[in-house]
Amino acid sequence: MSARLAQIWRYPIKAIGAEHLSEVTLTPDQPLPGDRAWALAHDAAKLEPGVTWFRKMNFLRGVAGPELMAITATCDAQTITLRHPTAGEITVDPATSEGEARLLAWIAPLWPDSRPQPARLIHTGQAMTDNNAPWISILSLDSLRHLQGQMGIDLDVRRFRGNLWIDDLPAWSEFDLIGREIQVGETRLRVDERIERCRATCVDPATGQESGEVLDALETHYGHRDFGVFATVLDGGTIQPGDRISA
Q1: Which of 65, 85, 140, 187 has its CB surrounded by the most CB atoms within 10 Å?
Q2: Per-residue model confidence as pLDDT tens digits over 142-165
Q3: Is the alpha carbon torsion for 224, 72, 103, 114 positive or negative?
């Protein structure tokens, strides 16, 4: 195996804002830094005091509000800047009440009236990923190109909300890495399990509208709804696009 790291992404607010990174420093047994550090709870959320991780149904998600998928993000040490094709741009400090209020007002027009409404930002110190595990997601550009060929359309990588995109690996062979350790630049990870996908992948992030039945295509052509794998960081370090990957 001789692949390379092609892209690095994180999502500072769960389901709200995709951020492209030029490098990142990974820590053992931790998710990608800043990934899903915040989540926006709706007014029907059941959040128990003292709990540090909550299930995804408590938060705004792209599967329920497709417009959210079109938001991109840029972070610095204190603020998050969000951009949307029609809502424009906003910069907030999510740790302040003013920043929270401004974000809620900005998000409201992008969220369906029929759903429980945006209520408050959550930050517990634990990433609000879909699984209560310190995983990083690894996805394959070769598998994406193969799926695109089957569907006859281009698929934006942001549909899949992945952290690390790798290239020069035979399509779908990332599933063969489960249970094995891989070297990514100066880091080492263990590949743990496949990622089953939801209907958020059927939304085009360029428009925030449903376009392309990804789940049906996965079922029809491959007999499953999986795309990408989860991995645990064993040895940390800084990685960047172009780093070689070996197993």
Answers
A1: 140
A2: 999 999 999 999 999 999 999 999
A3: negative
